[in-house]
Design goal:
By secondary structure, the protein is of the alpha+beta class. The chain contains seven helices and nine strands, in the order H-E-H-E-E-H-E-E-H-E-H-E-E-H-H-E.
């Protein structure tokens, strides 16, 4: 009970940060194999259209549906679908039930996806406005897979500084020079876990055009790393990061 009280107090203290920046939410869900085809059909047929309308209204900034690739977790209980939503104002509630107004001839029971899936967790992120991509990248054709890296750093702010000042410019140059398999990248601060056992402080996403690139080397052999570049990073990240690969199914973005 004390742990839960602490989490609630911490969340309240973070509310000004959430309100001051765009907020992204990772909604992790579990979909049974027999329901996956229908789940994705509804996501693309109904919810993508709804998201497009909400973006036009300025309520949503981003909406995406992704399906997990591989992994050795508990297949029965671990999430295999990730729904991402980004909003300008977390207090401006999205009226999801208004999707019915867009499809008046379709019963709501044929639109909703909750009966086809189980909610596992939700993670609130503060966007750091640091997305980068290769200069010749076409998101429509090059962004096919997303790898999410959850970091349990000793000092989260030190880790974010390393990512912004060291990793980001080096990666950007390699992508522009055609020497990186990664097509895009970004990093966010984790504001609120759902449970007190969630220990991660930040998450990055790596974008790829193929599974082969996602599982292979990030750079070509002729990319030289500055000596000692990883010393502080390794010292600040003694615990392994959690990494998950997803296939991007559908995306709607204000940008």
């Amino acid at each position: 009970m004390k742990k839960m009280s602490f989490i609630l107090i911490a969340f309240m203290l973070l509310l000004p940060l959430i309100e001051a920046q765009n907020t992204t939410i990772h909604h992790y869900r579990k979909v049974a194999p027999d329901n996956m085809k229908e789940f994705l059909h509804r996501a693309e047929t109904y919810w993508k259209v709804f998201a497009e309308k909400e973006i036009e209204k300025g309520n949503l900034l981003f909406f995406a549906v992704l399906v997990k690739v591989g992994g050795n977790e508990d297949i029965q209980h671990s999430p295999n679908v990730l729904i991402i939503t980004s909003v300008k104002d977390i207090d401006n509630e999205i009226k999801w039930m208004e999707v019915k107004d867009l499809f008046p001839d379709v019963p709501m029971e044929d639109i909703q996806v909750h009966s086809l899936s189980t909610r596992v967790s939700s993670i609130y992120l503060r966007d750091l406005d640091n997305h980068i991509q290769g200069s010749s990248v076409n998101p429509d054709t090059d962004f096919k897979y997303a790898k999410f890296n959850y970091f349990n750093s000793t000092d989260t702010w030190k880790h974010l500084t390393f990512e912004a000042e060291v990793w980001k410019p080096m990666l950007k140059k390699a992508m522009d020079d055609g020497k990186a398999t990664m097509k895009g990248w970004g990093h966010s601060l984790i504001l609120a876990p759902e449970t007190p056992t969630f220990q991660y402080g930040s998450v990055s996403y790596d974008l790829f055009s193929s599974i082969k690139d996602a599982y292979g080397d990030l750079f070509t052999d002729d990319v030289e790393m500055p000596e000692g570049i990883w010393d502080d990073y390794i010292a600040n990240n003694p615990k392994p990061k959690a990494t998950y690969l997803f296939k991007i199914i559908t995306v709607v973005s204000a940008n």
